[in-house]
Amino acid sequence: MRAYLEFAVARPHLYEAMFSMPSDLGFGTASAPEPLQRAFAAIHEVFPGPDHTRAEVAWATLHGLATLQMGGRQPESRVQSRLEHAHHILIQS
Q1: CA 21 – CA 43 distance, rounded (Å)
Q2: Whole-prediction pTM value?
Q3: Are 52 and 44 contacting, i.e. CB atoms less than 8 angstroms apart?
Q4: pLDDT, tens digit (0-9, with 9 covering 90-100), for 24-60
Q5: Which DSSP category does 11 fall into?
């Protein structure tokens, strides 16, 4: 989770192009390009479930944290605390 957030903050324009700009590329779908399938598989491995719902929620949580952090809308001093809290919530189910 930390690596995902660090990537987004270090490369905001690339992150935005990959995950925020309109595109016909899916993430976590069978029709997605191989690199996107591998990336989602890594999230699904950490947040497994009988379907992809848990992994999708984990990714959505990370995406929200990344987007808010990149926009300077959350204090830098609590990055670690937010990641730990999100992780705790996501692994409880």
Answers
A1: 21
A2: 0.82
A3: yes
A4: 877 777 888 888 888 889 999 999 988 999 999 999 9
A5: S
